[in-house]
Amino acid sequence: MRQEALEIQNQSAKQPLVIWVIFFATIISFMGLGLVDPILPAIAKQLNATPSQVSLLFSSYNLITGVAMLITGVVSSRVGVKWTLLSGILLIIVFSALAGSSDAISQIVGFRGGWGLGNSLFIATALSAIVGLSIGGTAKAIILYEAAIGLGISVGPLLGGELGSISWRGPFYGVSVLMVIAFFALLIKMPQVPKPKVKSSVLDPIKALKYPGLLRLGLTAFFYNIGFFTLMAYSPFVMNLDEHGLGYVFLGWGLCLAITSVFVAPKIQARFGTVKSMCAMLILFALTLLSMGIWTDHAIVVIIAVVVAGLFLGTNNTLITTAVMQVAPVERATASAAYSFVRFIGGAIGPWLANKLAETYSPHVPFVTGAIFVLLAMLVVAFGRKHLAHVDTASH
């Protein structure tokens, strides 16, 4: 029996080559998110834009990503997983290059929306593909997916800082080139995955939200992402660092996010359960944002808080993504699309709201407001625990 258990464990650790190809492409895809952070102040300065105008780079990206989540299942069920992934990557290649070639903030904002369309086709399909094709169960597959996200987000700012120190256009072109590599890797290595027998509808993700557990997780992520993108889109303007400095700060943040998403989240979930663990992480993140709001004028406090926040964000990301895959009796791709639709709307509101509050009131207000929204996310989880209790049973 012991030998059989060891054989099963070893087999689970060996993933098919296609999983590692998708893993690589996911890293490159999420590099596009953090790659922009170090150049936000530079774009504002060189294009004579306000921070709230620059924050629309995140807002348009997230808004289109969220809305387009409604069609990801429709596309993938008709053209297949492989060509949905490739179509998404191709759109990212084109629109990131166009953004780098722009001369006005409005043009970049528009092209980032096109980039978001490609991102939606890729990330929703990548998650369901990794979960469906991997060996070792849903939880391990999601940890692998979150690890790819963490690596992409952590390496992205470092590359963005290096390229951004040459020109703010550099990171946009950098994403385009890296996604070309990912495109050909998937084209060559990924086999055709059988299409589902039942074609998906645009309304499927909306209908999936009738399940209380999935709706609560979506609302949790909606509020939580307002705080998340307050940190992403607003903190670069108060740290008083150049492109290199911002790149290193967000590298530290991303590494903390990657490490906790892979190694810490599963242990915390196993010991305390999903609901208690998520509530704890959301409270700790809210307190981190609150400290940034109190000591906004002290750059060193903001820098340390940004890095520390990665510990809580990485853990919570894995917890909530794992829960989404198991909370409702719908296909994984549909659950992912429904959840992502709601959470990315929060990601669209957060960046603009944070910078607008700073321009209208004071630099402290955005962080305090972000903390309040994260606490709201915690309350949604805490009061909906009866709809989420079965997630831990499914995980085991």
Automatic annotation (TrEMBL):
Superkingdom per UniProt: Bacteria
Keyword terms of this UniProt record: Membrane, Transmembrane, Transmembrane helix, Transport
Cell compartments where the protein resides: Cell membrane
Entry keyword Transmembrane helix: yes
Gene3D superfamilies with a match to the protein in the record: MFS general substrate transporter like domains (1.20.1250.20)
Membrane-protein topology: Multi-pass membrane protein
InterPro entries for the chain: MFS (IPR011701), MFS_dom (IPR020846), MFS_trans_sf (IPR036259), Tet-R_TetA/multi-R_MdtG-like (IPR001958), YfmO-like (IPR053200)
Protein name (record): MFS transporter
